[in-house]
Amino acid sequence: MILIESNCSRTFNLGDEAILSCNLSLLKKYDRYEITVISPLPKVTSILHGVRCIHNFYALINERNKYTRNLKALWLAFRLLLNAWRIRKGKKPILLNPAELKFLHAFHKCDAFLIVGGGIIRSSACFFSSNASGLFPKCIEILIAKMFRKPVFVGAQTIGPFEKTNLCSIWGKLLTRFALNKVDVLTVREQYSKMLLQKIGVRKNVKITIDEAFISEATDQKKAKEILLHVENFDIKKLRKEGKIIVGVSLRAWTMTKERKILRKNY
């Protein structure tokens, strides 16, 4: 079984879904592999991608309050790592509910663990980001998989930034270095991420690769025109006649530091 951790969001994110879709399309070519996806919304992901899904780390906590959620995350991480060690030693798991036990057994039974493309390993998402993933859950999942001696592949990541004087950034760097030094294959999407990993002490051979979404199969021209015209109300022929060119820019609000913010703007 191949276990996949994706950045699938609690609210639909086309980029995350495209990355997952591309990885699944490649893996499904090999019929001998059963695939399980870890998702914050397993029912939705299962219907959308036609694959078996289980709850991810965030969904196991089921807590919206930031401070309570982070404390529960630490407690859950401790119990998962403790029971991974117990299972490896042939002992019965303790202190886990059925959903948490199912999550842990997925790592125990898998042949390989994959973390597909994303940009959550950074100081502004040390515990969780808005898409129900984050640096802490990813690193804990890596450590659980390695405790079960499973190969771990971390692909097409964007790493950082890590703030210099932020406490979360300091322990986030240490945890990132500790976890990523244990993976078997590590790729990033640009040179900056590779340089940053080397700077924080990741000794693995890091390779630069493209975002998995770029290997999506293109739809045919007729269908693309129908989507642009009837769904997006984007009449290419009319624009050509008027000699207009429209460039769309989409920005998200990212709080990087107290002094510097990247805010959504209108163009």
Give the gist of this structure.
By secondary structure, the chain is an alpha/beta fold. The chain is 43% helix and 15% strand. Helix 1 (14-27) links the parallel strand 1 and strand 2 (35-39).
Pick out its properties.
267 residues, disordered C terminus, Rossmann fold, alpha/beta, 8-stranded parallel β-sheet, single chain, two-stranded antiparallel sheet, 2 domains
Folded structure, characterized:
The protein contains 10 helices and 10 strands. The strands form 2 sheets. Strands 1, 2, 3, 4, 5, 6, 7 and 8 form an 8-stranded parallel β-sheet that branches. It is 43% helix and 15% strand. Residues 256-267 have low confidence and may be disordered. The longest helix has 23 residues, at 66-88. The chain folds into 2 domains: 2-217, 3-Layer(aba) Sandwich (Rossmann fold); 221-267, no CATH class. By secondary structure, it is an alpha/beta fold.
What topology emerges from the helices and strands here?
Elements: E1 2-5, H1 14-27, E2 35-39, H2 42-49, E3 52-55, H3 57-61, H4 66-88, H5 98-109, E4 112-115, E5 118-121, H6 135-147, E6 152-159, H7 167-180, E7 185-188, H8 191-199, E8 206-208, H9 221-231, H10 236-242, E9 254-255, E10 261-262
Parallel strand pairs: 1-2, 1-4, 2-3, 4-6, 5-6, 6-7, 7-8
Antiparallel strand pairs: 9-10
Name the helix and strand elements from N-terminus to C-terminus, one letter apiece. EHEHEHHHEEHEHEHEHHEE
What does the largest sheet look like? Answer: 8 strands, parallel
The gyration radius over C-alpha positions equals 20 Å
Derived from helix and strand composition plus strand pairing, the structural class reads alpha/beta
CATH fold-level assignment of the largest domain: Rossmann fold
C-alpha geometry: globular
Strand content is: 5-15%
Helix content: 40-55%
- In whole angstroms, how far apart are the ends? 46 Å
Mean pLDDT: 85
